[in-house]
Fold:
Amino acid sequence: MIIIPAIDIVDGKCVRLKQGKAEEKTVYSDFPVEMAKRWQKEGASFLHIVDLDGAFGGKPANKKTIGEIIKNLNIDTEVGGGIRSFEHIEEYLSLGARRVVVGTSACENAHFARDAYQSFKDRVIIAVDTKDGFVVKKGWLETSQLKVEEFVRDLKKIGFEEIIYTDILKDGMLEGPNIKACEDLLDATGIKIVASGGISTLEDVKRLSGLAPKGISAAIIGKALYDGKLNLRDITGAANAG
Structure:
């Protein structure tokens, strides 16, 4: 299991939100490029970048900043937030992103998800953002009528082998991830999961790492790293040991 630090961007700044709420924002740095370089220096092999303005607005809004981050790193990145067209996917891949994260468009349009997989294969990964067992969309502002397991099974039928799974009620709360939901989804679908949301202790990392044989492939961590509750080198070691 690999550890993936998160870089969330609002107005060109590095921030973290609580449960995805724009009004619950903490600014950690005015210089996201330097923050990204810090995580690379501390041993990150992969970085998760989210354009939060794009997620809320429905189209990329911090492309220049994200391009600068990618250009200044020697590690792989994935980029999400407001990516709702093939043009958006192609733009970020052309900037050097290893893969692009799609959420709302895949949730709303099964044909989009299918065509994205056929065109880009593993260069696209679907973000399955959830609340109370249902998929949420549009920057986590709307809850769909789509049940999580049903959605993930459909993605697997298309050909996707891995998803990013986030319980939004856990995100940014430092109360631990929804490990039971991850395990249930692994058992029900057999798809690989990048776990996200609420990871705040070394024990959280170890518990997720213990599910690696079942299919937990990575863990995205944000607020706990920024607040100094977790040390990237320590948890990377713990994840590898698991």
Q: What stands out?
A: The chain has one domain: 2-241. The two ends are 8 Å apart (CA to CA).
